[in-house]
TrEMBL record, chains A, B:
Organism domain of life: Bacteria
Glycosyl hydrolase family domain mapped to chain residues: 295-750
GO molecular function: hydrolase activity
Stored InterPro entries: 6-hairpin_glycosidase_sf, GH-type_carb-bd, GH92_a_mannosidase_put, GH92_N, Glyco_hydro_92, PNGase
Family annotation (Pfam families): Glyco_hydro_92, Glyco_hydro_92N
UniProt keyword annotations, A-Z: Calcium, Hydrolase
Protein name: GH92 family glycosyl hydrolase
Subunit organization: Monomer.
Source organism (scientific name): Aquimarina hainanensis
Cofactor(s) needed for function: Ca(2+)
Domain Glycosyl hydrolase family 92 N-terminal: from-to ranges: 35-289
């Protein structure tokens, strides 16, 4: 929804009128954001952070507590992909660009830290323990124990605002551009005036995969009070040789006091110092841009203006209330509401906006400055999110989902390829498969069609068919010739990748059918089930094949769990992948020998603890019992069991990495009692809802009905006996997206 | 002379008319630059370089051959203050900002290097041996043996131009912003288009004394042909820890191909690649500024415009001809003319312009952007140059000298203090003493008075009298109380510093007298001879005193030669300093017991090999025999002997470090037969000239006579018998500046 980013009262654009009209339907939702607990997922490797952020904001201001041996989990002593973990207790500042729920470290830079006394530039010395943390949607607060400073943060979409309450005396605010979540370095700082800093910081190279894909993030920082003194520090590398002996500062940190010129280098920072005669509040506001310093300044000026910390937080909280208020629930405990709305909050962090206030953004790959009239979104972790998150966006925020698809198509135009794992206009090429087309088809088939479907179809076919120089589908030649990738094609995930390509081809087929492209429909439909050749009847499981068509041997289907690398499967094993053919379950049932063997085999995944709630490949498994008439209770039991086991109102309340909202989306659906079980098929399957009543406010620009109400009737501990859809009895445990949104009402009767 | 920097035909300013008028008097001087051999001083620690440069240009394009163990003298294995030494044979590029004749490393950055084949970013791999070097005023050429590329360079005042003649095939031009003469690092590069780069490089921290005094040099580089491919490389530091293991590029160099965004870091560079179908010439032009990238671009556009390499070189050569043509000589050998004009060339490198084409420059210390209508000069190594170079400038280029004084006064206004060793708007505080005022007084007393003398006088008195927080005269309190610094005041140079302060006070006294400030004249005159208290009659030498007034003991007057550190003297010993009281020689003679003991003691300096031709304190010694009537022949013999011993038309043709032209100025004077023996006294003493006739074209804006002719008559191997000044017999071996320039003719009769 465009409105997310322009409802700030100080923003002006042509969307405002239509937004205000629509906002009216949200009703009395103002208080919903109180159910957001941003600490959920900050432990147990959930990789979320409690930073203050606006819906889909470019900026978040998060405590950064992963540096230093004072901490249990130090970013340098282990693999950490988040600026904050609840286990730690020593923070070294507040980072202004952060990722939530990702598996590799990136961003986590522009780290500001208030201190007292003399300026100290070593984070391990100026860092502090902290207490009295408070985190809400759009707000974070803590007390620094070493200095007695109270820190509060909030944010607009492109500006992070910090309010420091300093005790009387000498105080400083440091902006450390050396420290960051990753080992990536390089920055420029220029002090513009005693109240303003501008600069650049290098970020990127997600997972350290593509060293050449780093890029600058630009910023302009402003204080609301002029510094008494300021300066820039620079850490010097240690040099050997004769000259090194002359350098008194060899390997040390130098300071440039009241210096107005650019300082550039790998590890630099700046301090602004004050001498307060009494307890004093100081506001630091940092505007961000991925285009230029000028745009960062414009973002700051247009979004912050003369607003105070209070008014910004009030507005951002209002935004959260509105966007979270798209769903209203009744019934359920306070904790259940909290995990539900926090999950919804987590799906509203990424994808986030990339474009500046003026519409400019860096084009994919070239980073050429381009302009958009809608929102250009970024942080597309499609291997995760194609499975459920985008279907949720299509239902709840179709304008946003449309802009996401438009962003994907723009990326295709800019770089020649659809994105796979796009991050701030770079392609990280993380994970396998070709998932963008699945999202596009799924969106279109759910009726969100205000984008250029022909270009989209062309883009999808390109990655499906171009054999040489295809960055999205390595091993495509084998896939097309043999139907699958072999252990020679790739040493990691030959079966998984085949399945992913199958699902992508299924998506193209579904879209082709919709677009009445019969030949293509037929061709891609055939391609979409080639995984069948990897089905080993002896094991009733999928199994890698060698180049000569023989089975990979020796083969242990258990190998590959817990991220152990194996030949056939990536981030999983055969158990966790065999059923990941949700577009072909009836045939899988047949191959397995019928409904009983299928159910038995699927149940074995859970009974033998092969199911992994923390990763995506098997994420739809608990719903697959619904494909066997009479076994639906297994789905209901399993979904409830998983949800109550893994999702809690506590820092370890996510099963693992949130994967930019995918785990959260799973939770939201299961708590509502519907699940989009098969990507690119606009259907939901059913499980027992948590809430008595769920009201979804549908966007009238995309849906005929204004509301969709999902109700639970009867014995809340019972099993679903039958459904009513728009008041009519519905026999199947599957409902199409169209049926659901057209009728506007689904009631589940439990007994 | 303003004209130096604006006679370029493509330049426009209001000075042009007056300049053109004046240029007329230079007559037939076009060919004089052929006598410049820029290789003189490139060996024997002369610290000059053969780079192409315009008169007093901000930019020079010098071969950079001091990196890599392939070289005899590697910058990392020894103290090297020059980008080029003749001893070496392996060059790694061409640096665009360089210092000539200084004792500490600085600048020597923006190093461009043409290569062939695949892009290699390690200087030790892409470097090359070279041959067929040619260096002229404003031109340098060599042949790179590894690649077969011919490199030619030339320059306007603010733009360095390189012409590469590439063989057919794949070629590259690298601009390495990591490599530099010093260990200072930090840069930003942004490729603007396939023909343009902009960026910043950190320089400064001369001698590594003041780590906080580094600053950016900005540049815009343009190629005359678009690159087929370009990229930026960045060297990554080596990280330890878990994440370091994931970094395939840990401690390695990464490349960003066809990348248009800023890259920042300690060690980065850029390459522009071509594929030439035949032998092709490529021109690289780099505009420089110390203010901003925008100014660097404007400098490039205004000074280069559409000019070709040929036309720029032709114009720069014309400029050199004009400025060198200020003196015409006849008689003397070709080698003598060459060492003479090369020395003059060396006095025309520093001080150099700091202001951009538009008049902007960074203010002293704050680096705030300021504007000047004249030229703002920089690189003031006053401890060296106050002794002779500025007097020469007053004679030959009074407008330049006036602008230099104005620059000094602007520095005073900007920073509160006159400069001591100023370098690109930073105060390096190198060496001892308070020399700026000596230069100002000397200039004023020579009749160059078009600057604000009251401000100048105020500035001089401030450093002479302000006891606390005085950066120019440490130890001033002792000096004022006791008349001298003691071994407790400073552990290095208590006597030397006392003498320097004496000379500065003498300068103030002389100026006060001229300005009719009687009290001040009397007071400073007294202060100017307080060195006498350090005269040890037993030794007939100066000697350090302790805090209690006792002589420093044990004391060996020989200690301190060859830069051995000692208590009383800096860069010298008692022999080399005792006579450095040229403003008080008659009294020194008295203290030594009369003319004979004085002569004997002075002669001993030479006989005992205590005289150091390579350093400044004793630079006037050979002329001091003239103070003893009847001993003038000793001066003539000694000057000839020193000149012929130490000055040659070869790379080792300077006695040592040129000290930004001070050694060269000594040579110029001695070859003309006059020497400004006592700073701030507008007098010359006489020695045997080399040339039969020297014609100096005086600037009519400052001098009544248009020409000054110094002639030698009689036996050229004989001694000076008598002089004629303006046709009148002149008995003394001393002539005032006024007498010399008013009469316009000095004839020396030798017998």
């Amino acid at each position: 929804m465009q409105s997310l980013f322009c409802q700030y009262h100080y923003l002006r654009n042509r969307f405002i009128l239509s937004i205000l009209t629509f906002v009216g339907v949200l009703g009395n939702a103002q208080e919903i954001s109180r159910y957001v607990n941003p600490f959920i997922g900050t432990s147990n490797f959930g990789a979320t952070n409690p930073g203050a952020v606006a819906p889909r904001g470019m900026v978040s201001v998060s405590p950064f507590n992963v540096s230093g041996k004072q901490n249990t989990m130090d970013k340098d002593s282990q693999w950490l992909s988040t600026p904050y973990v609840k286990e730690n207790h020593f923070l070294t500042g507040f980072s202004h660009v952060n990722l939530s729920g990702v598996g590799c470290p990136d961003l986590g830079v522009l780290i500001a830290m208030p201190t007292t006394g003399v300026v100290e530039t070593d984070p391990l010395k100026y860092g502090s323990t902290y207490s009295a943390e408070v985190a809400r949607a759009g707000y974070y607060k803590t007390h620094l124990e070493t200095s007695g400073i109270m820190v509060e943060t909030t944010a607009t979409p492109r500006v992070g605002i910090s309010r420091y309450t300093f005790p009387k005396g000498k105080s400083n605010v440091l902006l450390n551009l050396g420290l960051g979540l990753t080992n990536e370095q390089g920055a420029m700082i220029k002090v513009v005036s005693p109240t303003e800093i501008e600069g650049v910081r290098t970020v990127g190279s997600f997972c350290y995969y593509k060293p050449e894909e780093t890029y600058p993030v630009y910023f302009v920082a402003r204080f609301d009070k002029p510094a008494r003194e300021f300066g820039i520090w620079k850490h010097t590398q240690k040099y050997k040789g004769v000259e090194g002996q002359w350098m008194g500062y060899n390997g040390k940190t130098r300071t440039y006091r009241n210096y107005y010129k650019e300082v550039v280098g790998d590890s630099i920072g700046t301090y602004f110092s004050y001498d307060f005669k009494e307890t004093t509040q100081l506001q630091l506001s940092i505007g961000i841009s991925y285009v230029s310093i000028e745009n960062a300044r414009e973002n700051l000026e247009k979004e912050l203006g003369k607003n105070t910390f209070e008014s910004v937080y009030s507005e951002t909280r209002k935004q959260w209330d509105k966007v979270l208020g798209r769903i209203e629930v009744s019934g359920g405990t306070e904790d259940e509401k909290t995990i539900f709305y926090t999950a919804l909050y987590h799906t509203l962090l990424h994808p986030n906006i990339l474009n500046d206030y003026n519409g400019e953004y860096p084009a994919m790959a070239t980073r050429e400055t381009k302009h958009t009239t809608g929102n250009r979104f970024t942080v597309f972790s499609f291997w995760d999110t194609y499975r459920n998150l985008h279907a949720l966006m299509s239902l709840l925020y179709p304008k946003q989902q449309s802009d996401m698809v438009k962003s994907m198509l723009a990326i295709y135009k800019e770089s020649g390829w659809l994105p796979k794992w796009e991050l701030n206009a770079t392609e990280t090429t993380t994970m396998v498969g070709d998932p963008a087309g699945i999202v596009i088809a799924d969106t279109y088939l759910r009726g969100i069609d205000d984008f250029d479907i022909e270009v989209a179809y062309e883009a999808m076919c390109k990655s499906a068919d171009q054999i040489t120089d295809n960055p999205l589908r390595p091993g495509l030649e084998d896939y097309l010739q043999k139907g699958y990738l072999t252990t020679s094609t790739t040493s990691s995930g030959s079966v998984s990748t085949t399945q992913e390509y199958n699902i992508s081809d299924f998506a193209i087929a579904q879209l082709a059918q919709k677009l009445r492209k019969k030949e293509a429909y037929s061709r891609y439909t055939k391609r979409a089930v080639s995984y069948r050749k990897l089905f080993d009847k002896k094991l009733n499981l999928l199994r890698p094949k060698n180049d000569d068509g023989s089975w990979y041997h020796p083969f242990n289907p258990d190998t590959g769990a817990n991220f152990v690398k194996n030949f056939g499967f990536i981030e999983g094993n055969s158990w966790q992948y065999t059923f990941m053919v949700t577009h072909d379950i009836p045939h899988l049932i047949k191959m397995m020998g019928g409904k009983e063997p299928f159910t038995k085999q699927l149940k074995k995944v859970f009974d033998n603890k092969q199911f992994d709630m923390a990763n995506e490949p098997d994420i739809a498994y608990p719903f697959l019992f619904n494909y066997v008439k009479g076994k639906e209770r297994l789905t209901q039991d399993m979904v409830d069991q998983l949800r109550t086991t893994y999702f809690k109102n506590s820092p370890d309340g996510l099963p693992g990495n949130d994967d930019t909202g995918t785990m959260s989306a799973w939770l939201i659906y299961t708590m509502m009692g519907i699940y989009p079980v098969s990507p690119a098929e606009p259907i939901y399957t059913i499980s027992r809802p948590v809430f008595d009543r769920v009201t979804i406010h549908l966007d009238p620009a995309y849906y005929e009905e204004n509301t969709l109400i999902i109700k639970k009737e009867g014995n809340p501990k019972g099993y679903i006996k039958h459904l009513e859809l728009g008041g009519k009895k519905h026999e199947r445990f599957f409902i199409t997206h169209d049926e659901l949104t057209r009728t506007g009402s689904l009631t589940m009767y439990l007994k």
